[in-house]
Amino acid sequence: MDYYTASKKFILKNSRPLDMARWNYLFENGSKEEVISALKAYQNDDGGFANALEPDCWNINSTPLQTWVATQIIKEINLDDKKHPIIKGILDYLSSKDEFDGHRWHGLNTVVTNDNYPHAPWWSYRQKQESTYNPTASLIGFILKYAEKDTDIYKSACELSKEAYDYFKDNFPLESMHESACFVELYDYIKECSILNLLDMKEFKRLLQKQIKQVITYDTKIWNTDYICKPSLFINSKSSDFYLENKEICDFEYQFILKTQNEDGSWGVTWEWNDYPEEWAISKNWWKSDIIIKNIKYIREFKL
């Protein structure tokens, strides 16, 4: 059985309706509307997202990071309609300043209500946790793309982008791969929207090129067993500004994906929850579907 057929079989047997719709849209000429319909199931009345959209936290209350996951799917299906209700809902949620401290939206373990629901240990609330720009940097980019330029939230995003960029320069190089990825996403959003005179994009690109190399795990022997950083976290196509500088390791990841697929069509999940074993068994399967989709996308984009 070839890699695609094996993956499709796993998706058909195990995936959530959302991931089934994503699979169909990306690989089977499926409908964008089916993805949107499935995604809406995770959106709350305040416009934010929750309900285990990101499978490691089952909090039913909207959180910025779960909402960020929704923005990734919106990007995946190329939903560019600024007036779409799902977009408007996200902008309303971000405008409400819920879980926002005036500079950043709260991240993984800075949301108190996470502890009331099954979750991975890194989602547990910590009162004295230093704020990062995960997911804030990416959410700023989303606002810059979708909000109307005469709105308060757009103007706020312009100022927040400058704050974020100053933080990035002052704390360069960052230690976190996920925070680094959010800055890459901010860069990509600004470039896509051709927003001039907001940030020094040449300097931003130069620093990000160094940042990506700083956090990628080059010890490929541990890729299949440890929670590590692969280039696909930052580089999703050969047209990326960061592909050529990382071509060798990107090409290695392509081969790695093909060589490490399990017999059931999935790839390994390299982390554990420790607590909530019943819920983790469910979430682990959800993660496998997400990893399959991302890996098939990568194979198709980077085919040698």
From TrEMBL:
InterPro entries: Terpenoid_cyclase/PrenylTrfase (IPR008930). This is Prenyltransferase and squalene oxidase repeat protein. It comes from Clostridium paraputrificum.
